[in-house]
Design a protein that fits this description.
three-stranded antiparallel β-sheet; 2 helices; 3 strands; rod-shaped; 19% strand; alpha+beta
């Protein structure tokens, strides 16, 4: 009833080969999952920055600043993205004097390019964010 050491070694050597084959089969899926998570995280970060840029622009427009100033405030809110004037659209500025129901609307759009595109997935998406703020009456 003793343990045969040579048979145990043979089984262990056979299982090492099986583990290597299984790892080779799973590696592409694991890498695709990792790259997908990285791309999603970067796209989500860009969406947050676009949202902050739209909010900053709408705040500037709500106090009656000129369209050029509103655009520069929106661009300055997310310098990492490198927004240009064509990415920022001031849809409605506040009239002077501001009425009770008037609002300022700013839309920011940004073309996000995935750093590592996956097959079957679009390599570029456009992130749009719109912010609406009530106008602040000036005294």
């Amino acid at each position: 009833m003793g343990i045969d050491v040579t048979k145990m070694r043979e089984r262990r050597d056979d299982s090492r080969g099986a583990v290597a084959v299984e790892f080779a089969l799973l590696l592409p899926f694991l890498l695709a999952l990792l790259v997908g998570m990285l791309d999603f995280a970067l796209a989500f970060n860009a969406q947050i920055q676009v949202s902050q840029a739209a909010q900053a622009g709408a705040r500037a427009a709500s106090v009656g600043l000129a369209s050029g100033v509103v655009t520069s405030r929106a661009q300055g809110a997310s310098p990492v993205l490198g927004l240009t004037a064509s990415n920022v659209s001031v849809d409605a500025s506040c009239p002077t004097p501001a009425g009770n129901n008037s609002t300022a609307t700013v839309t920011v759009s940004y073309p996000f390019h995935f750093p590592i595109p996956l097959p079957g997935v679009a390599s570029t998406i456009t992130i749009r964010q719109r912010a609406v703020t009530p106008c602040t009456p000036t005294s």
